[in-house]
Design a protein that fits this description.
There is one protein chain. Strand 2 (about 35-40), helix 2 and strand 3 form a beta-alpha-beta unit. The chain is built from 10 helices and 11 strands. It is an alpha/beta fold. The strands form 3 sheets. A 6-stranded parallel β-sheet has the order 1-11-8-7-5-6. Strands 3-2-4 form a 3-stranded parallel β-sheet, sandwiched between helices. Helix content is about 40%, strand content about 15%. The chain folds into 2 domains: about 30-115, Leucine Dehydrogenase, chain A, domain 1 (Rossmann fold), CATH 3.40.50; about 140-265, NAD(P)-binding Rossmann-like Domain (Rossmann fold, 3-Layer(aba) Sandwich). It is globular. Bound molecules: ligand L34. Ligand L34 binds near residues 95, 98, 120, 263 and 266.
Length: about 280
Amino acid sequence: MSAVIIDGKKISAQIKDEAKSLAAEFNADGIQPCLAVILVGDDPASRVYVRNKKRACEYVGIKSLSYELSEKTSQQELLELIEKLNNDKECNGILVQLPLPEHIDEQKVLLAIRPDKDVDGFHPYNVGLLSIGSARLKACTPAGCIELIKRSGIDIQGKSCVVVGRSNIVGKPVSMLLLAENGTVTVCHSKTKNIKDVCLGADIIVAAVGIPKFIKADMIKDGAVIIDVGINRLENGKLCGDVDFEACKEKAGFITPVPGGVGPMTIAMLMKNCLEACRIQRMA
Ligand code: L34
């Protein structure tokens, strides 16, 4: 049997259209939602992602403020810019694209962003709300994974969910979100002893390890739902996920492609978060 290919481009387009209607309602009330996007250095992949984010803002009707800073920017300068944006009433969301150059302490920077403008959901305050099941601004990639699953008509409740990878950006938050959906969640990582057996027990696998084709067909059960968060660039320039897509698609029930799966969802969920941040700030 061949898997249903989950179309992240199509689902993300729907979400962006929903965001566009919501943005129009804000506009009708004389409000212009606004996102500040900060990029430090010139990592080529980050440039692509940031460009996609700015494009999405334009489509949805969110104003974007773009800060493209040199690789040499000091931590202090970056913190000063964040402080300025924290106090700028026009600006509803602040996004600092990761990774940052090595001389900058990522945690310090994320901690400096006002939690109600933290559209990435990376601030410890928002991480805390997520872990007590009261998330407001949810990390975009993890939230995108959940939307892909739900909008494909899959019920998470009671399912065995295996997350491969435990990063702060994807593995941990997606585990919390799956748990909030009443999934039974197992998190695997580099020290896990029997990853293959754990994965074979999964109804839903979220792969976020950053290793090309790490999840092989003999690690998944028939009909499993496979969500591939990996974006690895191969030597030939092609993108490749953490899942062996060609082999797994013959066995899985549902599978996301790379590109065109989780990536576009990250951006769509960011648009939703910007509008949510705008709403939260207006209620305050
Ligand atoms: N602060 N840093 C912050 N927030 C984020 O949410 C991110 N992430 C990750 C990296 N750093 C971040 C992103 O924006 C990954 N990520 C991201 C965003 C967009 C896409 C992929 C990752 C994307 O558009 N992917 C396309 C292919 C793009 C290409 O051709 O390279 C896709 O179809 O998967």
